[in-house]
Amino acid sequence: MTSAFEPVHVAGATLSNRIALAPMTRSRAGAGGIATGLVAEYYTQRASAGLIISEGIQPSVVGQGYPFTPGLHNAEQVAAWREVTDSVHAAGGRIFAQLMHSGRIGHPTLLPDGLVPVAPSAVAAQGQLFTGDGMKDFVTPHELTGAEVREAIADFAEAARNAVEAGFDGVELHGANGYLIHQFLAPGSNLRTDEWGGPVENRIRFAVEAVEAVAAAIGAERTALRVSPGNPYNDISEPDPQAAYEALVKEIDGLGLAYLHVLEYGPEAREATLALRKQFSGPFVLNPATEGPTDHRALSLIEDGVADLLAFGALFLANPDLPERLRTAGPYNTPDPTTFFGGDARGYTDYPTR
Ligand SMILES: Cc1cc2nc3c(=O)[nH]c(=O)nc-3n(C[C@H](O)[C@H](O)[C@H](O)COP(=O)(O)O)c2cc1C
Q: For residue 187, what pLDDT is reported?
């Protein structure tokens, strides 16, 4: 029986355990989307994870959906991330960059030069977002032309090259939670009638080609994808997700990716998770559906072979030494949602270790 505290091979390296820091936006980048010394401190504190997956990082200017999120699309951002990755590596950690293009989840007030958010189709998400200038309704996004779809894919590949130059051990494409890749996968946000929309084989094309482009740029063994089948977050409508995700995994399975990361939505999703796990031949990272934040009770999923690694979000945010605390089934510091997004060291780097 494999335990979560045994090593696992991912991206050409041996990770010390099977516990991953789940990607979490913390909105503490400096002006120009620059990771600061405080960001380096936050990740370095969590270097006892087998794998750190960074917060969502925009691969392009228009890919930014929230205030104070970092980028990987210019030299200054690359240099700043280098300090983070060096610090994590010096502490014995491994770190992947999560590339997150937020698509229609964003707002013109967050973007320069009169840019507006982009999406597969001109369908606004219902709801509001925090812009730094109060809560605002989502706007109707600009529908990407065929040429612009290809540019968005090329931007992922370029940002992946930048990630490697910045010292990241690999790149996870954010295909979950209603952002651009998910917007292409889901019929509610993708009304296209060209090769990027309509039947399943067209709706998965953007995800597949983005993964392939990143794999061509930095190597498949350093490329990963996160998905959240059926997750309605950010106004996603995906009534029958299983066919699309099985088709997607079928297309990317032969590439030899670093891992597939599934964020499980809802307790009834386990069967679908198991089907994807069985279908994918590489390392399988699971962020399981749980009541409240994922904790030590999830460790049995490794023992039972449901996943090769487990991703922990809120509890890892609040417990920099989470792997040690999981080993003893707690106790845990309690996450404080009022300091999740934005601000300073408070609720970021000041959670105590034991
Ligand atoms: C503050 C916060 C920020 C998040 N930001 C991201 C993100 O940038 N990318 C992503 O894929 N998921 C993001 N998530 C989702 C987490 O990765 C994770 O799926 C979620 O917290 C559920 O796991 P848990 O029960 O262990 O917290 C975020 C979650 C939280 C709490």
A: 98
Please report, for the domain that includes residue 123, its CATH number: 3.20.20.70
Identify whether 288 is part of a domain.
Answer: yes
| Å from CA of 40 to ligand 1 middle | 19
Look up 348 and say whether it is catalytic.
Answer: no
Among the atoms of ligand 1, which is closest to the Cα of residue 177?
11
Task: Summarize the confidence of residues 93-106 as an average pLDDT.
Answer: 98
Residue 243 has pLDDT above 90, yes or no: yes
Q: What are phi and psi of 11, to 5 degrees?
A: 55, 40
Could you tell me the pTM of the whole model? 0.98
CB atoms within 10 A of CB 267: 10
> Could you tell me the pLDDT band of residue 6, with boundaries at 50, 70 and 90?
very high
Ligand 1 atom nearest to 314, measured from its CA: 27
Answer yes or no: is 352 within a domain. Answer: no
Place of tokens 């001109």: 122
Calculate helix-pair angle for 270-279, 241-253, nearest 10 degrees: 20
Q: How confident is the model at residue 237 (pLDDT cuts 50, 70, 90)?
A: very high
Calculate how far, in angstroms, residue 99's C-alpha sits from the geometric centre of ligand 1.
Answer: 14
Domain containing 30 equals 8-339
Q: Give me the sign of the Cα torsion angle 26, 160, 59, 118.
A: negative
Ligand 1 pocket, residue 233 CB under 6 Å: no
Ligand 1 contact, 298 CB (< 6 A)? no
Q: Sign of torsion, CA 182 183 189 190? A: negative
Pocket test for ligand 1, best of 19, 24, 295 (most atoms within 8 A of CB): 24
Q: Is the CB of 206 under 6 A from ligand 1?
A: no
The finding on whether 174 has its CB within 6 A of some atom of ligand 1 is: yes
Residue 345 inside a domain? The answer is no
Give mean pLDDT, residues 263-282: 96
